[in-house]
Design a protein that fits this description.
The protein is α/β, with parallel strands linked by helices and 204 residues long. The chain has a single domain, classed as Vaccinia Virus protein VP39 (Rossmann fold, 3-Layer(aba) Sandwich). The chain contains six helices and seven strands; from the N terminus they run ααβαβαββαβαββ. Helix 4 links the parallel strand 2 and strand 3. The termini are far apart.
Length: 204
């Protein structure tokens, strides 16, 4: 089991994660003209906190994750809520082919910094979007590497300008950024603030 499998059962018990998901959902709603019918994909959905917050404004949500533990908890939540418009999907785009389904909205929350090949995942998102569709990525601003424990091999957040350039190279336009949440965390034995951005971009 990986760390996400181990943490899945108690993931939603952390109020900071719930507040973070709600803040990102509110920012997406403020930035995009959401109104059903909208077919959406959340990549790296975990237990679905963000998608449950967006559910009333979306007609169909595919919730993709590579963690069996997270997907198991998510399936329980979907069944308990009677959420017939939410569909869990085992998917790892670092190894799996892109699905045939296409979406009007793709969003991620604290997922991108775990993916080594940022260029490829942005190209995959471009492929999965319908023309005119939107991509929303919420993640860490560039930080000094103290957000994660030693040994973490992902990205230490992102420089907004560099990420915007990568998104443009993937074929996306209308790229904008805003700060949507601040995560307090004890790192290197002192309390630090880690801001989260929301990047929105559109497929022409």
């Amino acid at each position: 089991m990986n760390n996400f499998d181990e943490e899945a059962r108690n993931w939603d018990a952390n109020p900071l994660r719930v507040a973070r998901a709600n803040a990102v959902a509110a920012a997406i709603r403020a930035r995009l003209p959401l109104a059903p019918p909208v077919r959406a994909l959340e990549y790296g959905s975990g237990t679905g906190l963000l998608s449950f917050a967006l559910r009333p404004w979306l007609s169909h949500i595919t919730l993709a994750d590579s963690s069996p533990g997270m997907l198991a908890v998510l399936a329980e939540k979907v069944a308990a809520a009677g959420a017939t418009n939410m569909h869990p999907l085992p998917l790892d785009l670092t190894t799996d082919p892109t699905p045939a389904e296409r979406f009007q909205l793709i969003y991620t929350l604290m997922t991108l910094h775990h993916i080594a090949d940022t260029d490829k995942i942005l190209r995959d998102f471009h492929t999965l979007l319908e023309p005119g569709g939107w991509m929303c990525i919420a993640d860490l601003d560039h930080e000094d590497g103290s957000f994660h424990e030693p040994g973490f091999d992902g990205h230490a957040g992102f420089d907004r300008g560099a990420l915007a350039e990568k998104a443009a190279q993937a074929g996306l336009t209308n790229i904008t950024f805003s700060t949507v949440f601040h995560m307090p965390k004890v790192a290197a034995r002192r309390k630090k603030d880690f801001p989260l951005f929301l990047m929105t971009a559109r497929k022409p």
